Amino acid sequence: MVSFLKKKLNSRIRLFAKCLIISLIFFTGCPYGDPGPFPNITTIGLGRIPFEVLTQNVPANSDAYITLAADNSVLIDRYYNNNFPIPVGTYPVGIALWQAGHRLYVINNAGLSVSVLSISPVLNGSQVIASISDPAFHNMGDAVVTPDGRYLYVVTNTNALSIISTTTNTVLQTFTDPSFS
């Protein structure tokens, strides 16, 4: 019985923590209970269907990048509530950031593409600089940039992995494995 209660409590704490994190970005309330004494919660005005959130892990920069799937855009939120939406491809669902190169890669699931954004220190200076398309991009899941920034790995829900050169913004190779289904 004690084990069951610990699991239930841990589950409740994890739910509360997730809700608190989401509340810090999107909402003013938490359906899992009072978030406690956190007076600095900031509400950010968003578009329709916020899908993924990514923040920079740099003390001097408090940017948040949020995909707005139904609005076909990425919202850059700088210093809490200074928003700038950037139009990207159709139904953006994933984000990968290469901080050193000031590049943001946006996975456009319905657009079968990856938008490449140049991230500027000036909020409205960020813009789409390239779009990478490939037939293998059907039903994309997520992406990650290698630590050296040379490659972007894109995975799909159709058992494919594409490797993209971030220098040329081209697909170098796609691997598929039907045995994963």
Topology (elements, then pairings):
Blueprint: H1 2-25, E1 50-55, E2 64-68, E3 73-77, E4 83-87, E5 92-98, E6 103-108, E7 113-118, E8 127-133, E9 140-145, E10 151-156, E11 160-165, E12 170-176
Antiparallel strand pairs: 1-2, 2-3, 3-4, 5-6, 6-7, 7-8, 9-10, 10-11, 11-12
Written overview of the protein:
Helices cover 13% and strands 40% of the residues. The protein folds into 2 domains: 1-43, no CATH class; 45-180, Methylamine Dehydrogenase, Chain H (7 Propeller), CATH 2.130.10.10. The chain has one helix spanning 2-25, and strands spanning 50-55, 64-68, 73-77, 83-87, 92-98, 103-108, 113-118, 127-133, 140-145, 151-156, 160-165, 170-176. The chain is mostly beta strands and 181 residues long. The strands form 3 sheets. The protein has a 4-stranded antiparallel β-sheet, with no helix packed on it. The protein has a 4-stranded antiparallel β-sheet with strand order 5-6-7-8, with no helix packed on it.
CATH topology of the largest domain: Methylamine Dehydrogenase, Chain H
Count of domains: 2
Rg measurement, Å: 18 Å
State which percent range the strand residues make up. Answer: 35-45%
Strand order of the largest sheet: 1-2-3-4
Gross CATH architecture of the largest domain: 7 Propeller
Intertermini distance: 38 Å
Overall outline = globular
Low-pLDDT windows of residues: 1-35
The biggest sheet amounts to:
4 strands, antiparallel
| Secondary structure: helix percent | 10-25%
Count of discrete alpha- or pi-helical segments spanning 4 or more residues = 1
CATH superfamily of the largest domain: YVTN repeat-like/Quinoprotein amine dehydrogenase
The helix-and-strand class reads mainly beta
